[in-house]
Amino acid sequence: MTAETSQTLDRGLRVLKLLAETDHGLTVTELSKQLGVNRTVVYRLLATLEQHSLVRRDAGGRARVGVGVLGLGRQVHPLVREAALPALRALAEDVGATAHLTVVDGNDALAVAVVEPSWTDYHVAYRTGFRHALDRGAAGRAILTGRCKDIEEEDGFVLTQGELEAGASGAAAPLPADCGIEGSVGVVMLNESVPPEVGPRVVRAASEVAAVLR
Asked: What positions does the domain HTH iclR-type occupy (predicted)?
């Protein structure tokens, strides 16, 4: 901690991060041990976070992330979209296909930014807000692949044909884990197969998007 930072705010943010990493919640005692502070401090942090609906406690006293974080999360997508647009625009123009940034939303893959190429006669209409199951389509499959520890041992991208739309194929690469957003960057095109140069180009675009999100 430096003189310019707030110890209380830091602890509160650490509480939220710890709770976000667990599905079953944490007790005051568990939080106290993980934070390295006494239980009284944890009680005060939880009470403050509860007032803002960022934390809730169940009947058994376990603390969990509250619904208030949803309101904060809704403001993240526009910022992420704006940051990703330059890399997506370059990808769409280079490949001649619709480029997109897709993030996890529950059990779905949600497109939060889409850029169509300017010079092609035909391209796939893929809209911001489009969602599909994580296990269907290149974007969702890339996100699931990114959760595997051995992603570096593979090509780094996923290819699909006709899973979301007949006659369309897709390529997508997961965002690097250290960028703070679980998602993927990809393209969808009106081809029966993806040209071999597209996969590596998508991987590069994912790295470019991650660089501006870090």
From this structure: 6-67
Contacts of 70 (CB under 8 A, 6+ apart): none
CA 128 from centre of chain: 15
Round to whole Å and give the CA distance between 150 and 73. Answer: 29
Question: pLDDT grade, residue 149 (50/70/90)?
Answer: low
pLDDT in tens, 169-205: 999 999 998 887 889 999 999 988 999 999 999 999 9
What single letter denotes the amino acid at residue 46?
L
Q: Residues near 185 by Cβ (< 8 Å), separated by ≥ 6?
A: 84, 87, 88, 91, 99, 100, 101, 102, 172, 173, 175, 202, 205, 206, 209
Instruction: Give 160 or 127, the one with higher predicted confidence.
Output: 160
Which pair of tokens denotes residue 62?
A: 């376990």
CA 200 – CA 116 distance, rounded (Å) = 19
Task: Show the tokens assigned to 160.
Answer: 């699909």
Q: Rounded distance, CA 42 to CA 52, Å?
A: 16
Average pLDDT, the chain: 90
Q: What is the pLDDT of residues 99-139, one digit of tens each?
A: 999 998 888 999 999 999 999 988 888 889 899 999 999 99
Reading the block at residue 116, the tokens are 């169509």
Cα separation, 26 vs 170, in Å, equals 40
* CA 4 to mean position of chain CA atoms: 30
Question: How many Å apart are CA 56 and CA 27, to the nearest integer?
Answer: 11
